[in-house]
Write a structure and sequence with these properties.
This protein is mostly beta strands and 80 residues long. The protein has one domain. It is built from one helix and six strands, in the order βαβββββ. It has a three-stranded antiparallel beta sheet, with no helix packed on it. It has a three-stranded antiparallel beta sheet with strand order 2-5-6, with no helix packed on it. It starts with 7 loop residues before the first strand and ends in a 5-residue tail after the last strand.
């Protein structure tokens, strides 16, 4: 089944730079938190299911119950 257009697939461009950014962003956050931060577009990329490239401007970060980062991904908040 093809992916729907609103769905975004995000990937990081520089894992080390992202690790540093996320380490700073999670300070003071607690287990179970889910939050978004602004990021420079050069840090990641995102595509729709149909292959359309989007310009990223945000990252979603999810903190696991043990306080570690469960997942993070870049996305376009405007869908463009």
């Amino acid at each position: 089944m093809p992916a729907t257009a609103p769905h975004q697939i995000g990937a990081w461009n520089d894992d080390q730079a992202v690790a540093e950014l996320i380490a700073e962003a999670v300070r003071g956050k607690k287990a179970g938190d889910i939050f978004d931060i602004d990021i420079p577009s050069r840090m990641g990329r995102s595509f729709r299911g149909d292959g359309t490239a989007l310009t990223v401007d945000k990252a979603r970060i999810v903190i696991d119950n043990d306080g570690s980062v469960e997942t993070s991904f870049p996305y376009s908040s405007t869908g463009r």
